[in-house]
Amino acid sequence: MTFTVLTEKSNLKITLLPIDELKPHEKGSPIYLELLKQEILRDGVLKYPIIADEKTHVILDGMHRWLALKNLGYTLIPVILVDACNNPEIRVGKRRIHRYICNSDGEIPIKEVISAGLSGRLMKPRSTRHFFPFSKFQQINYPLHQLGKKAAKDVSEYLAKMTQQECNFAIKEWLKEIAEELEFLTKRKEEVEKEMADFLNRIKNLNNNSQTF
Known about the structure:
Elements: E1 4-9, E2 12-18, H1 30-43, E3 45-46, E4 50-53, E5 59-61, H2 63-72, E6 76-82, E7 91-93, H3 110-119, E8 129-131, E9 142-143, H4 164-210
Parallel strand pairs: 4-6
Antiparallel strand pairs: 1-2, 2-6, 3-9, 4-5, 7-8
Helix pairs in contact: 1-2
């Protein structure tokens, strides 16, 4: 296997790999794919690299970016490679909120994800949420014209068969999940602000009492 190192950013190595060397672990959503294709074509760049396991090249994050570029006929894709099975800081949950809440029912073994990618028995669309010890939003704005271009490819084998009604329901679920995370973070912010205010008040009272001696 050969690859080109694009850049090293925040101690992360971003490489350029042949798009056909990557393997999905879950099905894609037709409507989300269409939204992303329109965005990528409009911008003329790929904003963020995808993330994949370095040993197996199973995609962990960026499934729809991979699908979009593959469908549009591009032959290369920027990738952050990680050692998924040997890094305990890489976790997999079922919802975005599982980044903050450890829930045995919401945890998915990383080996299950890798197995799905290697076997081709893909999981349901957006059924996993991968959490990394770094921000996955490593913006690179990589020009599309540098990714090679051939004829468009059919990616239907990687897509879930969904009716328009099911697509609309999926959109509502995505928005609901984001709202759930925002509600959690808002509440947590209020708790931390109260904790800080209480601590500052105790310091103030300590200083006032010290002055009386």
